[in-house]
Structures are given as C-alpha cells and as structure tokens.
Amino acid sequence: MFRSRTFSFDDPLQYGPAIRAADIEMHPTHAGPYRSSLVQCNLDSVWMQQMTEHNARVCHGAVIPTRTIIEFLADDGQAPIRHSGLEVTPGMLVVNDPSHTHRRSFGPCRFGTMSLANEVLAKLALSILGRELGGPAPVRAFRPKPDNLATLIRLHGAAADLALTDPETLAHPEIARALEQGLARAMVHCLADEDEEEHQVASPRHGAVVNRLDEVLAENPERPLYLAEICASTGISERTMRAWCQEHLGMGPLRYLWLRRMHLVRAALLRATPAGASVTQLACAHGFWELGRFAVQYRRLFGERPSDTLHRPPVDCRLPAGVHAPVQGVS
Q1: Residue 321 falls within a domain, yes or no?
Q2: Which residues are bridge partners to 39 per DSSP?
Q3: Structural domain tally of the chain?
Q4: 10 Å Cβ neighbour count for 274?
Q5: Residue 325 predicted with pLDDT over 50
Q6: Could you tell me if residue 322 is inside a domain?
Q7: Do residues 189 and 60 share a domain?
Q8: CB neighbours (10 Å) of residue 49?
C-alpha cells in the first residue's frame, strides 16, 4: 500500500526520530535557526526519502539490518560530505552498513535515500542481472555509470515532487506500481556497477573506535561525558580517538562532546520551567562553568539566548513536536 508523508522541522531533536529505517541522532554544528524538511514515499517494496537540510551538522546512528539502504547527494553543485570516514561527492552512491554510521555535512545539503528488503533485492538481482549482488560489507561509496545514477535520481526526484504537490496521483495503484518498478530496477543497476567501478570502503577498525564512543554516549543519554573518562572506560588513547574522530566526524572528540553537551543542555532547557530550574543550574549540570562564555556560544549555535529557550512552553523532546506538515497520502 502506498503512503507518503511530508514534514518540516525547526528543531533537530524531532528531525532524527522521523527518519525511517534508521535511529539517528543529529547535532547542527553552525549557528543560526534550524531548518530541515523530509519527504517520505513508501511503496510496497521500496522505501524512499528525500532530505533537505539548511544547516551543517554531524550525526550518527544505525540502520535496520533487514534492508539494503543506499543514499546519494541530489544536487550536482553540492559540497562533499563525510560518511563514515569517506568523502562523498555528487555522482557517488553510498551503501550503508547496518552497524553505526557517521555523517558530517559542511553546509546546506539535499540528499536522497532508498531501500529494499534484502530478500527482495536478491530476487530482483537474479531476475534482472541473472546473478547475485555482493553481500553485506562495511559502508562503501562508488560511482555508478552516469546514466544509471541519473535514472535513479530522476525517478527518485519525481516521486518526491509528486508527494509534495500531488500525492493523490502518486497514490493511484498503477502509477505507484510503475514508479516502484522503475526505482527498484534503477537501484539494482546502480549496485551492479559496484563490481566494475573503483570504490571506497570504510575502515572497520577505525569505525569500531568511533562506534565505541557512540556506545558509551548511548549508555549515558542525558549525562555529560568528558574525553578523559571516555578514554579510560574504552581503553582507547586520546591520540587514537582524536585521529579517528577527525576521519569519521570531520572534527575532534572534544568538539564532538562539546556539541553533544550543548544539545543536552538545550533539551534540558526545553523540558524545564523557569519556576523549576535556572539557566545557571542547568548549564553547570552539563559542565559549562563559564556562564558568560556559555551564553555567547549558546546564542551562536542556536540563534537565541538560553533564557529564551527556558521561557518557551515545556516540550517532550522525544516527540515530534517540531513536525509542522500534516501526513499526506494513504495510511
């Protein structure tokens, strides 16, 4: 059954949980009001999403292991991004590993994702190519043949445009079936090109270090952590942690942990009330002792003062309160 949904967000706390087939935590890295949008089209077998992000960010998370998930930059003029230590430019296709992945963008970014259940993809490959595709592997990126990738991007963009402007047309059974067949075939042909094209493969060893960092953070979701205690608990030296965080995240671990603490304190301010807590209490609880400096850095990153955030109506940051657009299509 076809379903499409369109969202717009003004808060990264709600953007990550809305992304399908993945568990993503998002941290914008530069100042200014936050804006992103998400278009989802779910056909019988194909799930696809188009994301438009106006803010540079770093994110990490895992994708579900029962589906093969690909992604690509949607615009030719986009700046490269870092994906699990790999540089990804327009014209490349990324195949995700179901374990943790890390992505870093450096400015506005528009990209698409698409997935098929592993068993469906295997059957399609046999029927279209007469052979199997490669099995699970670490995150890798390669350049499919230009015609194959152009077909995939064109069909993906057409589906996203229809979901935004005319979801009733896209919900017509024959139109949805034709689009799904075209997208699935284009995905198979692009993946088949991996055998013939030079590709990059993420280092499992390097990724394991950053994944261990994420595991420690996940075990302490609302507690600020510091580099020395993380290195002590993981047995990984600061030097190694710095080198491999720079490779995967495009920043050192101190910057990454600082961003996380800033977003934790913002979530705490959003949940609190002026009568129940103060900016000083919450800032100090998250390791920010120089309050004047904290206030300046907070405003640069989030576009408002900490006191402005505290005086907003309390929200549950786990719920999609930043979702503005209604659900569209057939549910």
Answers
A1: no
A2: 6, 50
A3: 2
A4: 10
A5: no
A6: no
A7: yes
A8: 24
Q: pLDDT per residue over 277-321, tens digit each?
A: 899 999 888 888 888 999 999 998 888 899 999 998 876 554 343
pLDDT of residue 49: 95
Report whether 48 contacts 40 (CB < 8 A): yes
Q: How far apart (Å, rounded) are the C-alpha atoms in residues 48 and 4?
A: 10
User: Which of these ranges, 3-12, 79-88, 161-170, 243-252, has the smallest mean pLDDT?
Assistant: 243-252
Q: Is 128 contained in some domain?
A: yes
CB 248 within 8 A of CB 59: no
Displacement of CA 120 from its chain's centroid (Å)? 24
Question: Any idea what the CATH number is for the domain that residue 10 is in?
Answer: 2.60.120.10
Q: Which residues pair with 114 in a beta bridge?
A: 48, 70
SS3 content of the chain, % helix, strand, coil (to 5): 45, 20, 35
CA distance 24 to 63: 8
> Which range marks the domain in which residue 185 is found?
3-203
Classify 265 as helix, strand or coil. helix
In this structure, the answer to whether residues 54 and 153 fall within a common structural domain is yes
Same domain, 212 and 153: no
Q: Which of 181, 203, 225 is the last residue of a domain?
A: 203
Residue 324 lies in a domain: no
Burial letters 50-86, b for 16+ CB under 10 A, else e: bbbbbbbbbbbbbbeeebbbbbbbbeeebeebbbbbb
